[in-house]
Amino acid sequence: MSVLKAEGLTKKFGKVQALKGVNLEVNEGEVFGFIGPNGAGKSTTIRILLGILQATSGKATIFGRDVWKEAVEIHKRIAYVPGDVNLWSNLTGGEVIDFFTEMRGAKLDLDRKEELIERFQLDPTKKCATYSKGNRQKVALVSAFAADADLYILDEPTSGLDPLMERVFQECVLEAKREGKSVLLSSHILSEVEKLCDTVGIIRQGEIIESGSLNDLRHLTRTTIVLETKNELSFDHLSGIHDVHKEGSTYQFQVDTEKLDEVMQYVSQAGVTKIESAPPTLEDLFMRHYEGEAGGEK
Amino acid sequence: MVKQQFLQTGRLMRLILRRDRLRLPIWLIGFLFVTIGTAALFKGLYASHEERQQMATTFDNPAVTALIGPGYGLDHYTEGAMMAHQMLAMTLLIIAVMSVLLVVRHTRSEEEEGRVELIRALPSGRLSNLTSTLLVMALTYLVLALTTGIGLYSLGIESMDLNGSMLYGAALGITGIFFAATTALFAQLAQTSKGAVGLSFLLVGLGYLIRAIGDVSNETISWFSPFGWVLGSEVYVNDYWWPIGMTLIVSLIVAAVALYLNSIRDLDAGFLPTRGGRRHATAWSRSHLGLTLRLQKTSIISWAVVIFIFGATYGSVLGDTETYFAEIEIMKEVMANQDGISMTLQFVTMVAAIMAVLSTIPVIMAINKMKKEEKRNRTEQILATAMSRYKFLGNYILVAIITSIITLGAGALGLSAAGAAVVEGDITFMELFNAIMIFLPATWVMVGLAAVFMGLGRMNGLPWLYLGFVFIVIYLGDLLQMSDAVRNLSVFEHVNSIPLEDFELIQSLVLSVIAAGLMLVGLALYRRRDVTG
Ligand SMILES: Nc1ncnc2c1ncn2[C@@H]1O[C@H](COP(=O)(O)OP(=O)(O)O)[C@@H](O)[C@H]1O
Ligand SMILES: [Mg+2]
C-alpha cells in the first residue's frame, strides 16, 4: 500500500525550472532513499510534499490526502528533519523538543524522549545558541523520533553528525522500519542509503532518472571481477566488458550485469585459479549518471 | 479549511512570548518610565500657569514644530497639552521603530533562518506564524496603551484626565499596531529580512518627514502621514478618538493584505525582485577591509540618503523660522535679549545634535556587524587565513569611522545646503555644516565604546542603551532641567554647540584621544578572548 505518491510534480521558481515532472512512490513499511547531486531538486520535492511549497503542476498525496490542501491533517502523522536546523537561540534544546511535541498535539512520552536524548548524547539543558551544527541536528532528530509518526521525511538529516551518531541515527531508522513505519530519506551518503533503504530514486536536474528496489537497480550496473587464470585471456570478442587491467596473470575488469553469465562461461575455460567479485555499489550507479550530467560519457 | 490556516496560532504566540520574555518587558518598561516619568517631572517643574505659557511661546515656531510635531492648546498650555506637544510625536517615532524590529524578527528573519519551515512541517496553519506575531504585537500594545493611560491618570494632574490619558495610551498603542501591520506587509514583499527592515524604516522615516513638512506648511499634507493621523487626536486638548479608530481600521486592512499575500506566496519567496550577484570578486572586495565595506555598502548609502533628506528638510524650515521670529514682536519682549537669529540658531544646535545621534545608529551597526558574522561562524574562516585579530577588529573600527564621516557628512550637507539657501546671509553654509561635523570625534567615542564590547564579546547591546541615554539628554535635558552631573555622562554634551559657541580644537582632540584609547582597549580585549560560533 502506498503511503506517499507523487505524480508529475513540476516546480518553477520564476524562470528556474527546479522540477520537471517528479514521480515517486513510497510504500508502507518501506525506507525510500532519495539521492541526487546538489541542486537536483531533492529539497524542493520534499518541501512540496510537506505542503510548504505549492507545486506548479502535478499531484502528490500522503496517506491518500492532498499534500497542499490537507497539509495539517497529514502533518499530524509525519515527522520532518531538514539538513540545516536552526533553532531559537534563547530556548534550551529540551524546551524545543517539548515545543515540537506539543505542536504535534501528542502527549509527551518522557521515557522515549529521555531514551533518545541519552542515545544521541545530547545535553538538553543548554541554550540553542550554544549548540554546534551537529547538536542542533540532534535536537531535530530526537524530536522526530520521539514523535510517534507514520512517515518520517528526512532531508540529508545526518549532515554534521559524527560517525558514532550516524550509527545511532541508522539504528533509529531501522527501528522505525521494524515498527512498520515508512521513511523518505534524502541523502548524499550512499553507504547510508545502501544500508537502510529498500528502494531508491535517483533525481538529476529535476527529473527522476532511475528508481526501483536496490536489487533491481544493481542489474543496471557492473560487477567488478578480479581473476587469476592459467591461460591467457582475450576479451576482444566479448561485449559488456570495461576497464580491463592486466598484471601478470591477474585480470581486473568490470562486467555489465546482464553479460555476467556469458563472460563467466568464457573465462571458466581458461582455468581459473582465483576469483573475487565485488557487487556493484550504489556509488557506481550514481557516478554513472552523475558523469553523464558532468559532460557525456567518459 | 479557513480555520486550518490559523491552527496553533495560540501556541506560537506562547513561543514568541517565551522567546521575548526579556525583550518585550524592556521595551514596555522603557516607554512607561520615560512617559510617566516626564509627566511627573512636568508637574513639579512647570507648576505655574505662567511658566508653562512661557514654554509654549518658546516652542511655538516652525522649526520646533517640524521636529516635535504640532502643538495644540498653546494659548492654554496645561501640563496635558505640554505633554502631548513635547513628547507624543517622538515617542510614536520610537514605537514605530520597535514595531519594525520586532515584527521582522518574528516573520522574515524567522523564515530566513529556516524555522518557519520547521513549524510549517508540523500540524500548524499556513498563516499561523504571521497571525501569532501580529496578535502578540496587538497584545503588547494593548498592555502599553492601558498601562500608559492608567499611569498618566494616576499622577493626579488636573489637566490629565482619565479620557485624555487613555487616549494618550491609545495613541501609542495604535501607532505600534499600525507599523506592525505595515512591517508585516513589507515582510511579504521583500525577500530578505534586511529588505523588510529597510522598506519599513523608509515608511517610518517618510511618514515622520511628511508630517514635519505638513505641520509647517499645510496641514492637509500631514494627513498623508500615519503620524499625522494619530497626532490629529489632539490629546489632552480636544481628545478626538476618531483618528485612533481610523488608524485601527487602516491597520486591519493592511494586516489583511499581508495575510493574503502570505497565503499566496511560496515560503522564502518575496514579491519584489532580487538581483543576481557578481561571479567574481571586484578588486576591492578581495581584501578584508574592502569586503567588510562592500557588505555594508547598501546599508551605509541608504542611511546616508535618509540622513541627508532629514538634514535638508530641517534646513529648509530655517527660513520660515527666521521670518516667524521677525514677525512676532511679542517674542522679542519675552526673550528680551534674543533675536530671531539666535532663536533659530538654538534650534540649529538641537537639530545638529539629534542628527548626530541619528548618524551614530549606522556607525554602531557597522561595528556590531562583527558579532553577527561571528555568530554565523564566518569569522573563523577569515581568522584562519593570515589575518591577525588586531587587523580584523581594526578593519571593523575603520569601517565604522568611514561610516561616521559619510553619515554625518550627508546630514551636514543636507542641513547646510538647504539652510544656507533659505536663510540667506545670516547663517553661513560652513556654520551649519560644522554644527554637525563637530560631533565627529564624539561619534568616534561611540565607536570606541562599541569596540570595547566587541572585545569583550558580550553585552554588545549596551552601546545602544547608551545612545538612547545620549538622545534623552539632548531631547529632554533642558525640558526636564536635568542636573549637570547627569548630563555630563553623555559624550555629546561635551561637544560645543556651533555656531552659538566657538570651535575648540582641544575639545575635539581630547574626545579623539578618548576614542582611540577605548579602541585600543577593545583591540587588546579581542586579542585575548575566544572567538565563539
Ligand atoms: N526559492 C528558490 N528560488 C529559486 N530557485 C530555487 C529556489 N529553491 C531552489 N531553487 C533551485 O532549484 C533547484 C533545486 O534545488 P534543491 O531542491 O534545493 O536541490 P537539492 O536539495 O537536491 O540540493 C536548484 O537549482 C536551486 O537553485
Ligand atoms: Mg537540499
UniProtKB/TrEMBL annotation, chain A:
Transport listed as a keyword: yes
Domain (ABC transporter): residue spans on this chain: 4-230
Gene3D superfamilies: P-loop containing nucleotide triphosphate hydrolases (3.40.50.300)
One of the record's GO molecular function terms: ATP binding
Family, similarity comment: Belongs to the ABC transporter superfamily.
Protein name, per record: ABC-2 type transport system ATP-binding protein
Keyword Acyltransferase part of the UniProt annotation: no
Taxonomy of the source species: Bacteria, Bacillati, Bacillota, Bacilli, Bacillales
Pfam name, any one: DrrA1-3_C
This protein's UniProt keywords: ATP-binding, Nucleotide-binding, Transport
Cited PANTHER family: ABC TRANSPORTER ATP-BINDING PROTEIN (PTHR42711), ABC TRANSPORTER ATP-BINDING PROTEIN NATA (PTHR42711:SF5)
Highest taxon in the source lineage: Bacteria
Organism of this sequence: Piscibacillus halophilus
From TrEMBL, chain B:
The keyword RNA-binding appears for this protein: no
Keywords in alphabetical order: Membrane, Transmembrane, Transmembrane helix
Entry keyword Ion transport: no
Transmembrane spans: 21-42, 83-104, 134-155, 167-189, 196-214, 240-261, 300-317, 345-368, 396-423, 435-457, 464-482, 505-526
Protein name, UniProt field: ABC-2 type transport system permease protein
Organism lineage: Bacteria, Bacillati, Bacillota, Bacilli, Bacillales
